[in-house]
Amino acid sequence: MTSILLLEKDEIARILDRLASQILERHAQCGDVMLVGIQRRGADLARRLARLVENRLSRPVPLGILDINLYRDDWTSLEGKPHIGRSSIPGSVDDSVIILVDDVLFSGRTVRAALEALMDYGRPRAVELLVLIDRGHRELPIHADYVGRAVNTGRHEHVDVLLEERDGEDAVRLTSGEPGQPLAQP
Q1: Model-level pTM?
Q2: What is the CATH classification number for the domain harbouring 100?
Q3: Is 159:148 a contact under the CB 8 Å cutoff?
Q4: Which residue has the higher pLDDT, 82 or 116?
């Protein structure tokens, strides 16, 4: 396997700053906006985005964390035991604009599960999607409203997002496997 560095720490910081600006351009004072990060790295990115937006607004922005493991469609047997994490949604999502945050958009199945999980909390006015990396290969009709970087990938490649909070460093790497052997996305 080979690995190529796509983004390093400073580039990730610049992208997150740009994405925070785009949120503010679209939603001005973010009065009805709630950022909701998809566990795990999406939650880490949402925390960073919330700090950036809060610094510009000089006030807090609601921040939620969503665990989607019970909503995934790839648990096909009783042998697989998903790790169930915590969701934390700070208040009602009814009539809010929810900005779902994730690290990588691939098939769209994670986002489908997140939408289903989110609906258990109420009915948002709108849901927008923000991703650090959009790598293509959609299996569902899902697109991101905010994209940090679009990366053309093969199905046999894997995008690894490493974040300081979880991995001890900030980096995005593209890893190539053997053609014809798709690598599973976490």
Answers
A1: 0.89
A2: 3.40.50.2020
A3: no
A4: 116
